Automatic annotation (TrEMBL):
Organism listed in the record: Sinocyclocheilus anshuiensis
Source lineage: Eukaryota, Metazoa, Chordata, Craniata, Vertebrata
UniProt keyword terms in alphabetical order: Calcium, Disulfide bond, Lectin, Metal-binding
UniProt family annotation: Belongs to the fucolectin family.
Name of this chain's protein: Fucolectin tachylectin-4 pentraxin-1 domain-containing protein
InterPro entries: BG_Antigen-Binding_Lectin, FTP1, Galactose-bd-like_sf
Length: 335
C-alpha cells in the first residue's frame, strides 16, 4: 500500500542571515532591545533614554547618541522587551569622552515586575567598572524576564549609557487558555455556557437536570495543560458538586462529547464561592470537559480556568528547510 505524505509549512522559524536554530529553539543574534520602549528616571538635556539602543556608541558626539539621567538618588534606565525572553547576556558600552567611573556599581536587573520601576527584579550582574569607550558583556544564565533595567543605588548619582544590547531566546510561558469556544449539554434559562469564562464568579453556567450533564471547552488547537481551576457558586447549592465525582477530562477526541478523553482529576467537593485547582501534569489535548456521570444531575460552573503551554503535535516527521535565506519548519503527516 502506498503512503502519501501531506506536508505543510507550519511557520518561519528564523532567518539564517541573523539567527541560529538548534533543536527547534530560536537563538537570536539580534539585539532584543532594538526598537523597544525605553524609560529612564530622568533626562538631562538631549540625552534621551532611546539613544542607548540606537546602534551608535557616541564616540564622536555622546549627547546625541547616549542616554543620561540627571544627578539624582537611585537613577535607573529600563527597556520593555514587550514579551518574556530568556536572557543569556547583556552588553553595556560606556562613554568615551569622560567620566567612565559614573557607571561603577550599576546593577543589571531582569524580571517581570514593575515594582519599584523594575528595580526589585533579580540581579543579573553588578558592574564594578567599564573603561571609557569599552563594551563589557555580563552573563545572565538564561534569566526569564520582560524588563531589563540598569539601576545605580545611592545619592547624587548619574546613569549614562552609550549602548545597551540584550541577547536571548523567546520563552513560551504558561498562559490562561480561555479564548476557546465553550459548549454544554443543555442550557438552564440564561445561565450561558460562556459565563464560566467571563472572569466573574457572580455569573455561572448551568445545565438543566438530566443524565450525564457536561460542559466542554475547545481550545482550538492542542495544548499541554498544566492545571485547571474551578470556582463553585457562592449563593446556594454548592453541595451539587460535593461527592458528584465531576470529572475533568482532557484530550483530542470528541467521542461522547469529549467525555471519553483521559481524566485529569475527579472533584470531590468545593466550598461555596471557593476556587479549587487540579494539577493535570501537562496532559496534551485540545478539549477540556467537565462531566458528571449519573441520572438527575445538574452541572453549575461559575468559573473555569485552564493553564498550559502550546505544543506541536500530530506530525509523523518534521524537518527544516532553508528557502531564500529563511528557515521553515515543515510538518508531514503520512496518510
Amino acid at each position: 500500500m502506498q503512503s502519501l505524505a501531506k506536508c505543510r509549512v507550519t511557520h518561519i522559524v528564523c532567518s539564517s542571515y541573523n539567527h541560529k536554530c538548534r533543536d527547534g529553539i530560536i537563538f537570536t543574534n539580534s539585539n532584543l532591545a532594538t526598537g523597544r520602549t525605553i524609560t529612564q528616571s530622568s533626562t538631562i538635556g538631549t540625552w534621551l533614554g532611546q539613544q542607548a539602543i540606537d546602534f551608535n556608541p557616541g564616540f564622536k558626539k555622546p549627547s546625541s547618541s547616549c542616554s543620561s539621567t540627571d544627578n539624582q538618588t537611585n537613577p535607573w534606565w529600563r527597556v520593555d522587551l514587550s514579551s518574556v525572553y530568556r536572557v543569556s547576556r547583556v552588553v553595556i558600552t560606556n562613554r568615551l569622552d569622560c567620566c567612565p567611573e559614573k557607571i561603577d556599581g550599576a546593577e543589571i536587573r531582569i524580571g517581570n515586575s514593575l515594582e519599584n520601576n523594575g528595580n526589585n527584579n533579580p540581579i543579573c550582574a553588578v558592574i564594578s567598572s567599564i573603561p571609557a569607550g569599552v563594551s563589557s558583556t555580563y552573563t545572565c544564565n538564561n534569566m526569564d524576564g520582560r524588563y531589563v533595567s540598569l539601576f545605580i543605588p545611592g545619592d547624587s548619582r548619574i546613569l549614562t549609557l552609550c549602548e545597551v544590547e540584550v541577547y536571548g531566546e523567546g520563552v513560551t510561558k504558561e498562559a490562561d487558555l480561555v479564548w476557546g469556544t465553550a459548549a454544554q449539554s443543555t442550557l438552564f434559562y440564561d445561565w450561558y455556557t460562556q459565563n464560566a469564562l467571563d472572569g466573574l464568579s457572580s455569573t455561572c453556567s448551568h445545565t438543566t437536570t438530566h443524565t450525564d450533564p457536561w460542559w466542554k471547552l475547545d481550545l482550538m488547537k492542542m495544548y499541554s495543560v498544566n492545571r485547571v481551576t474551578i470556582t463553585n457558586r457562592p449563593d446556594c447549592c454548592e453541595s451539587r458538586i460535593n461527592g458528584a465525582e465531576i470529572q475533568i477530562r482532557i484530550g483530542n477526541s470528541l467521542e461522547n462529547n469529549g467525555n471519553n478523553n483521559p481524566i485529569c482529576a475527579v472533584i470531590s467537593s468545593i466550598p461555596a464561592g471557593f476556587s479549587s485547582t487540579y494539577t493535570c501534569n501537562n496532559m496534551d489535548g485540545r478539549y477540556v470537559s467537565l462531566f458528571i456521570p449519573g441520572d438527575s444531575r445538574i452541572l453549575t460552573l461559575c468559573e473555569v480556568e485552564v493553564y498550559g503551554k502550546g505544543v506541536i503535535k500530530q506530525a509523523d516527521f518534521v524537518f527544516w528547510e532553508t528557502i531564500n535565506g529563511f528557515i521553515f519548519l515543515i510538518q508531514c503527516i503520512v496518510r
